[in-house]
Amino acid sequence: MLKVVSNTTPLISLLRISRLDILESLYKKILIPRAVYDEVEAGKNKDYYSDLLEFPWIDVVEIEDKQAIKC
Questions:
Q1: CA dist., res. 50 & res. 41, Å (int)
Q2: Are 69 and 42 in contact (CB under 8 A)?
Q3: Which end of the chain is more exposed for a tag (fewer CB within 10 A), N or C?
Q4: 5 three-state secondary structure
Q5: What does the pLDDT average to over 33-43?
Q6: What is the sign of the dihedral through the CA atoms of 69, 55, 3 and 60?
């Protein structure tokens, strides 16, 4: 199965237009790093906010290889 990882920008953009379902229709399941989830959660006060944990096709994961994400 194809593993798709998303960053914050597409999630917030699709939440803003109420079309997060596009990701599900394209990929069936996506993974987001905990840091991405935390960024979306920082916008809880926005009118378009939705808790990503409510979507069964989104999995929040911890990054195991910390070296892979260093800039």
A1: 9
A2: no
A3: C
A4: strand
A5: 95
A6: positive
Could you tell me the pLDDT band of residue 3, with boundaries at 50, 70 and 90?
confident
What distance in Å separates the CA atoms of residue 48 and residue 26, rounded to the nearest whole number?
A: 21
Domain ranges for the chain, please list them. 8-62
Q: Is the pLDDT of residue 67 over 70?
A: no
pTM comes to 0.83
Secondary structure in 3-state letters for 11-71: HHHHHHCCCCHHHHHHHCCEEEEHHHHHHHHCCCCCCCCCCHHHCCCEEEECCCCHHHHCC
